[in-house]
Amino acid sequence: MENKKLFSMSALNSLGVLAYVSLVVIFMNNAQKIFGNDNPPLTGVVVLLVFILSALITGSLVLGKPIMLYLDGRKKEAVKMVFYTGASLFVLLLLAIGGLLLLK
């Protein structure tokens, strides 16, 4: 697989992580309005389940394809894809920080 395709897939996966994280943040910011404060023990269960589900989803987006490439014997491509995904996530993080600074 060529580098351009690996980078494109990595960037798309990073945007998927950004979209998912954004949805979780919206949910968390509105959870009290939706559910209220009536069940604190159940709230802890929901928060931990969301955390675990988030780890599964983001882990799949970041590592799913590289693991498949690695298991297929395409180790260099797998490592490149992990690097490209990490770099894409870092750029998105810098953009988010920049956005926060502009809104300040």
Work out the count of structural domains.
1
Structural class: mainly alpha
Number of helices: 3
Regions with little confidence, pLDDT below 50 for 5+ residues? none
The arrangement of helices and strands along the chain is HHH
Ends apart, CA distance between termini = 43 Å
Instruction: Estimate what percentage of residues fall within beta strands.
Output: under 5%
The average pLDDT is 93
Helix content: over 70%
Report Rg. 17 Å
Q: Compute the number of strand runs.
A: 0
Main pleated-sheet profile? none
Shape: flat
Features:
single chain; 104 residues; mainly alpha; 3 helices; 90% helix; flat
What this model shows, in words?
The chain has one domain (3-103). The protein has helices at 3-35, 40-71, 75-103. The chain is mostly helical. The chain is 90% helix and 0% strand. Helix 1 (3-35) packs antiparallel against helix 2 (40-71).
Summarize the structure.
By secondary structure, the protein is mostly helical.
Layout of helices and strands:
Blueprint: H1 3-35, H2 40-71, H3 75-103
Helix pairs in contact: 1-2, 1-3, 2-3
